[in-house]
Specification:
Layout (H helix, E strand, L loop, with lengths): L2 H7 L7
């Protein structure tokens, strides 16, 4: 999952 998509669909991910 891309960092941007993670921000839009999930809480902040360390994978950014």
């Amino acid at each position: 999952m891309n960092g941007v998509l993670a921000l839009e669909s999930e809480p902040v991910d360390p994978r950014l």
